Amino acid sequence: MKTRREMLSSGAKLAALMASVGLLPATAMADWNKVAFDAKTLAEAVKGLGGGAPVASKDVTITGPDIAENGAVVPVGASTTLAGVKQLALMVEKNPNALAAVFNVTDAVEPSVSTRVKMGQSSNVFAVAIMNDGKVYYAQKEIKVTLGGCGG
Amino acid sequence: MKHLITSAAVAALAFASVGTGFAQDATKGIEEYRKMLEDGNPAELFEMKGEELWKQKRGPKQASLEKCDLGKGPGVVKGAFVELPRYFADTGRVQDLESRLVTCMGTLQGFNEEEIKKTPFGRGEMANVTALATWIATASRGMRFNLPTAHPEERRFYELGKRAFFYRAGPHDFSCAACHAQENIRIRLQDLPNLTKNPGDGVGFAAWPAYRVSNGQMWSMQLRLNDCYRQQRFPYPGFASDVTIALGSYMGINAKGAASIAPAIKR
Amino acid sequence: MADPMRIRAQVTGDKATVRVLMSHEMETGQRKDSAGKTIPAWFIQEVTVAHNGKNVLTAQWGPAVSKNPFMQCVVKGAKAGDKIAVTWVDNKGDKRTDEATVS
């Protein structure tokens, strides 16, 4: 029997194969940063987004609950008080692929975004700010994922 | 060194409060999580769809549901949810929100009511019934449950529902009451409401329809009951069958005075 | 065609908070159906937020964003009556745009 991780990785290979033979629409894939989204680790994901070595910073904030009742929907947010931010990314360390979402920030919006992500298990979650000069700052927070009961 | 001392203090504190401490912290954490999800409940997507379906001319008769009588007169939506199930003279039956909607879809729009009732949850016209129910529930948000009990049939359904609630059967010798007739019990981290009385604002009957985050589905009360039956290892109760409506009457009348938060968001 | 989005844009001071709910499966490509067959990945890859026709935020998402996605951002200088349009494109090439008026 295959382990979960092996199955996941063969799934990714299949997707890559399908993409290479044109089974997935090329137009939709064109601008999407496949390298960053396929990355297994935080470091690879940051590299894939074009950032340098990440540095912890008090000027970056990650928001989220301490405990998530269900890993299927975990509210998380990233913001920074730093000027010159190009991208804000949300990453989940223990997910099969670390990068969940990346927002390209312009001067017309506040450098503060939030969404909801899936988490396979309890993990550190990262808000990553990639600056115009390529520097990378981050904040992290541990979010515990619990199992639910049977009712509601 | 300082770090070590801090960890030791934290450990001691954790140890001192072991038992109820963890459960309380976890409960607080879960409450915070639920609160975060309330703003932007995906139920709003179903609510939007329901409102559109209500006004749209559909079905063989190409009619809207705007003349549907949900108990407060044709077309009256606000406040209808917190007074259902109730007796309807035109059908001669006690009906809950969903069965009433199916009646209106049949009489006003010409849909085949039996076909709708046989459709699985989340599909075709059944998905539309759920969306409609979500929108109608939203229109009574914050209002308090006050089911009518003047008609003998309404009282009969309450008694029937009570019997169904306490009826023990199946391979596990289970009943609704096995999980929902006591205070302060839970399964893992989920508190189980006592549905034999008013369990409080927005709890139990006053929270459905609800969006389930675990599967990303909108769950109506009929589906909720259906799943309770599955969990009890009972046979499928049948959509809009008397027993499901009677259970609604029982829980709804017990919930008198509870404020509705439907559509809620659930784990 | 995909169901409409729910967009709310509310002014606070000299900016507007934009909250968006999208109707999408966000299938990861890692789940199997009851027959043991892998359910293919199907998820929103790109999201664009425009203020009065000008793009102010673009995002790229992976399949780890939750089903029926929610997103919030804050648009500077948005006033009551302004238009906020949101567009998503998924990995199958489906797209949807909806617009809301800032209130």
Characterization of this structure:
- The complex is a heterotrimer of chains A (152), B (267) and C (103).
- Chain A has 152 residues and is α+β, with helices and mostly antiparallel strands.
- Chain A is 22% helix and 39% strand.
- In chain A, a hairpin with a 6-residue loop joins strand 5 and strand 6 (99-105).
- With 267 residues, chain B is mainly α.
- Chain B has a three-stranded mixed sheet. Chain B has a two-stranded antiparallel sheet with strand order 1-2. Chain B has a two-stranded antiparallel ribbon with strand order 3-4.
- In chain B, helix 7 (152-166) crosses helix 10.
- Chain B is globular and about 55 Å long.
- Helix content of chain C is 0%, strand content 50%.
- Chain C has strands at residues 6-12, 15-21, 44-51, 54-61, 70-76, 83-90, 95-101.
- Chain C has a four-stranded antiparallel sheet, with no helix packed on it. Chain C has a three-stranded antiparallel sheet with strand order 1-2-5, with no helix packed on it.
- The interface between A and C is large, with 42 and 38 residues.
- Strand 7 of chain A pairs antiparallel with strand 5 of chain C.
